[in-house]
Amino acid sequence: MWSYVLKRAGTTAVTLLAASVIIFAFIHVVPGDPIYVLLGDTATPDQIDALRHQFGLDRPIIVQYLTWVGHVLEGDLGRSIFFQAPVLSVIADGAETSALLATMTMIWVTIIGVPIGMIAAVRHGTWLDQGLSGGAMLMASIPTFWVGLYLILIFAAWLGWFPSSGYPSIFEGGGAANLRYLVLPSLALAAPNAALILRLTRASMLDVAREDYVRTARAKGIRPWQVVRRHILRNALLAVVSAFGFTFAALLSEAVVTETVFALPGIGRLVVQSILRRDYPVIQGVILVIVVVYLLVNLIVDLSYRLLDPRVELQ
Amino acid sequence: MLSVHDLTVSIGPETAPLDIVAGVSFDIAKGEILGLVGESGCGKSMTSLAVMGLLPQPGPRVRAGRVLLEGSDVTQLQPWQRVEAGHGRMAMIFQEPMTSLNPVRRIGDQIAEAVKVHDGTSGAAALLRARELLELVRMPDPAMQLSAYPHQLSGGQRQRVMIAIALACRPQVLIADEPTTALDVTIQVQILGLLRELCNRLDMAILFITHDMGVIAQLADRVAVMYAGRIVETAPVEALFDRPRHHYTRGLMDCMPSRNSGARRLPTISGQPPAPGTVGAGCVFASRCAGVREPCRVASPPRTGVANGHEVLCAFPLNGGVAS
After folding, report:
1. Which chain A residues have a beta carbon less than 8 Å from that of B91?
2. Which of B56, B88, B162 sits opposite A221 (nearest CB)?
3. Which residues 228-267 on chain A approach chain B with CB closer than 8 angstroms?
């Protein structure tokens, strides 16, 4: 187990190194310059050169890269050109919103997708199944921002149950009650992903229900719902768990749109704004953090596989 | 112990059902092994699933006939409903021991689960009984195997576990659907020996399904030969092998390689079994029968008793012995 974790850590480091090269190269290929964004159109060439020198942007790109990597290894992601603050603290400001949003979304995906998928599977072929599966298909095909706008319209504008935008930190006034700001955005984010998990759960359970060992279980004389719970569900969840890794990856990109629609001060919006501002250190830092989180989530998924399936050997 | 009367299993719409098992009847007594033999697709597995109440749903259904366990009608009941009604002492083992056990649960749990249903015991007591059952099926090192997962066992060991699960309900009737087909020949002999021993020791009735005449000869007390969803001949095992009366049974025996068949080509039964729904009037075997006569093609053959306990579904049964 621990040697497996070490090996995974090794491959993770290699992946990160490759990711850092790609991130750095792509950003500098994109036309535009943070200096113009900062100084505006009226800057003199002298001012521009001075500022460019100050940020080290006049040095060869290789040198810039190695300097950056060197600092990252020391735990320093650099300073934001726009915010004039350490990148780490800029990311930390957005991290709370994004982490809570992602967590709430995954909770919705799990408590909506898995049980309803189960119900559809157990009642498969009935009108209930067709309704649920059809509804899931619909939710999976509607774009997140559109769902978001309708949620705002119905639950914020008409019913007034939830706030429509923004998010004050739970560490400031209001405390945990501020989580209500994240209910609508997390539901919007969850909709297509829960639909996917629902359909996967249903399909996977129907597959497992045809297995020989399910027939053995029925032959024992145990009740139908116990057959589902003890024999079908756990085996069906093996396929669903691996899908959670992909879902999380999808979440990272969908969050960019959702945070924009709901005006949330999260990482997704930070990326978009930093790209518009050509704030290189922030873009690099955020994407690096996202890559790390993604790799960690997939490591957790792989480890949980071992818990669910005794046949899986971690090597 | 087990009585099956006129069992008919159908697929397709209610209004135009196709009978894949048509009017099958047999009885099995305590301590007796009835071999149900026939080629693939003749309906023997469907018969066994119907008797056990395990027909896949949605799918084939019992359209007519009755299954009586010690006189109680259990025809339309699934196993859990039989347990509730107090008629749960029937168990089944299957052809594929590799896939018949849940891969993510321990052997002990899987046996104990069956014990709990039938004994009403829980936890430690059920595991203790699971261990006894593993000893009963001569599992090496039963205490250790309780915590093993199916993928850690061999095919023969898994089939022993399946038998242990089946024995958890203290069955009066055990259905074995080709339990040795997927196993090596040496393991096959062991499992057959175990079934014979358990049958005698626990006074069970066993319905043993196979396509292997050799296994039948070795194990069964009586034999029912099945063709195209019908039982065409029933007889004590010696009588069947000494004097087969149905042309199909005779054909099956001629196809068996023997020590003195040498290098010559084995005879075959020409043609194919009829697909369900293509059976018209007359005998189902008429198109392939070596002894077919004109009446066979127009009228269903009668079921005739030709000797004590020997019945044949044929208008012109054979008289002689086995063909040379």
Report:
1. 219
2. B88
3. 230-231, 234-235, 238
Give the CA distances from residue B223 to residues A122, A189, B172, B186, B243, in Å, rounded to whole numbers and listed in that order: 40, 64, 19, 24, 13
Contact A216 B101 (CB under 8 A): yes
pTM over 0.90: no
Beta-strand pair B72-73/B90-93: unpaired
Could you give phi then psi for residue B23, rounded to 5 degrees?
A: 65, 50
Residue keyed to tokens 């290894």: A73
Q: What is the rounded CA–CA span in Å between residue B249 and residue B259?
A: 20
* The two structure tokens encoding residue B57: 């749903």
d(CA B142, CA A269) in angstroms, rounded, equals 61
Question: What is the CA angle B60-B61-B66, rounded to 5?
Answer: 140
B162 touches chain A (CB under 8 A): yes
Delimit the domains of chain A by residue range. 2-73, 88-308
Tell me the pLDDT tens digit for each residue of A228-287. Answer: 999 999 899 888 888 888 788 778 778 888 888 888 888 888 888 888 888 888 888 888
Q: pLDDT tens across A56-98, in order?
A: 778 888 888 888 888 888 888 888 888 888 999 889 888 888 8
Tell me which chain A residue has its CA closest to the CA of residue B106: A310
Q: Is B173 on the interface with A (CB under 8 A)?
A: no
Residue of chain B minimizing CA distance to A237: B104
How does B182-199 read in b/e, with b if 16+ C-beta sit within 10 Å? bbeeebbebbbebbbebb
A vs B: CB pairs below 8 A: 76
CA distance B146 to B134: 9
User: How far, in whole angstroms, is CA B18 from its chain's centroid?
Assistant: 22
Does residue A199 belong to the interface with chain B, where contact is any CB pair within 8 Å?
Answer: no
Q: Which residues of B touch A215 (CB under 8 A)?
A: 54, 94, 100
Chain B closest-CA separation from residue A213 CA (Å): 4
Minimal Cβ distance to A220: which of B56, B104, B165: B165
Instruction: Please tell me whether residue A75 adopts helix, strand or coil conformation.
Output: coil
Contact predicate A28/A59, CB 8 Å: no
Out of 3.10.310.10, 3.40.50.1860, 1.10.3720.10, 3.20.20.300, select the CATH number for domain A88-308. 1.10.3720.10
For residue B125, give both structure tokens.
């007591």
Cβ distance B103 to A310 less than 8 Å, yes or no, reads yes
Extract the tokens encoding B12.
């397709």
Interior/surface letters B42-72, b for 16+ CB within 10 angstroms, e for the rest: bbbbbbbbbbbbbbeeeebbbbebebbbeee
C-beta atoms of B80 and A211 within 8 A: no
pLDDT single digits (tens) B56-102: 877 899 999 999 998 899 998 999 999 988 888 999 999 888 899 99
- Strand order, beta sheet including B205-210: B90-93, B173-177, B205-210, B33-37, B222-227, B230-236, B310-313, B303-307
**Strand B230-236 with B310-313, pairing:** antiparallel
